[in-house]
Amino acid sequence: MRLSSIARPTGRFTQAATAVLVTSALAGTPISCLLDRHGSKTAMAAGAAAWRHG
């Protein structure tokens, strides 16, 4: 088994995992500021409503 045959199927997963980590890192600061400003109850209610209508 050559390395290229292993890297080919996991390459897209690695790219997707990297994209998710970068997105969460960029979104973390603004979201935490909103949570500090408005409280977590509002965020939980909004998330529940979005999930319900989703």
Task: Provide structural commentary.
By secondary structure, the chain is mainly alpha-helical. The chain contains two helices and no strands. The longest helix is centred in the middle third of the chain and has 36 residues. It is elongated. The model has no long low-confidence stretch (mean pLDDT 82).
What descriptors fit this protein?
single chain, 54 residues, mainly alpha, 2 helices, 93% helix, elongated
Q: Mind describing the biggest β-sheet?
A: none
- Low-confidence blocks of residues: none
Question: What distance separates the N and C termini?
Answer: 44 Å
| Structural Rg | 18 Å
The secondary-structure class comes to mainly alpha
Overall geometry: elongated
DSSP E strands, number = 0
H and E string = HH
- Count up the helices: 2
Strand % is under 5%
State the assembly state of the protein chains: single chain
- Share of helical residues: over 70%
Q: Can you give the mean pLDDT?
A: 82
Question: What is the topological layout?
Answer:
Elements lengths: L2 H36 L1 H14 L1
A few lines on this structure:
By secondary structure, this protein is mainly α. The protein contains two helices and no strands. The relative contact order is 0.07.
